Amino acid sequence: MSDQADDVWNYDSGSAPGGETESSLDAPISMQGLRGTLTPDAPLAKLVWFKAGGKADWLFEPEDADELRIFLERLEGSLPVMALGLGSNLIIRDGGVPGVVVKLGKPFARVELQDDHVLACGAGAHGILVASTARDAGVAGLEFLRGIPGTVGGFVRMNGGAYGREVADVLIDCDVVMPDGRSHTLRAADLQYSYRHSALPAGTVVVGARFQGEPGDPETIGAEMDRIAQAREQSQPIRSKTGGSTFKNPPGHKAWELVDAAGCRGLTMGGAQVSEKHTNFLINTGTATSADIEGLGEEVKRRVYEHSGVELEWEIQRVGRP
Length: 322
Prior knowledge:
Blueprint: E1 37-43, E2 55-61, H1 65-75, E3 81-84, E4 90-92, E5 97-103, E6 111-114, E7 118-122, H2 127-136, E8 139-140, H3 152-157, E9 161-162, E10 165-166, E11 171-177, E12 183-187, E13 205-212, E14 214-215, H4 218-235, E15 241-242, H5 255-261, E16 268-269, E17 272-274, E18 282-284, H6 290-308, E19 317-319
């Protein structure tokens, strides 16, 4: 998952530990007292699954949620902010991302068991870690998170789902930091979940969440997780440079079937290709630019509409300058 990118950013124009930058560029705020890293002109391709795209004007990696709050408070909304987790469901456009990209790393990857089969998770925790921790603690109902390629922050924002369940089914509440630095705890109902969408405002960073499970047998839970892992391995190009499911399933349809019926299996544009294994996946064959990937997706949309009259909607988030 994109992790925490919100609406598409379509712009037509265009550090070292301890808060000291390694560039002549002026930092957007004072980093005094902050231990995190602020890096100018930071390459993002290596941080996303497609391995393509431009740079962030600024990349901030906070040490904890309090540091993120202080940083955003000092920023005072002067620049756009986007959170980045695993970078799985995301196209970073070749012109790069304006403003500040917030990368939530290891300090945000905790998963802890609480009373009544509740798991408290940091926004940087991978779905596999959440599901595995639940299994080991005998907590059922979270197995589907094993099948979501992303982190907690991303699939809370996007109501991530797989294998018949979605985050809306298990989320109790989440901790967020608003663009102005204010912290809130929001209940699941506050997010107004719909299919792969929430009402979280742009620039809001999810820093933690709590999921409700139920009593279960670790062996049974593990078997279901293994089934999900095997299903993904057999049906999806998970070992390729891809971005996960490209299009949302339209009501009454499966996106991959529409794409296949329109003759798009294996279709290429530059170094991008529609997967032969699963036609709702785009892959970078090794030389693709983000423009190739996004352009191929738009061509697939056009052909599907021409063939079936159904207009596909992107599930992958596309951010930054063209």
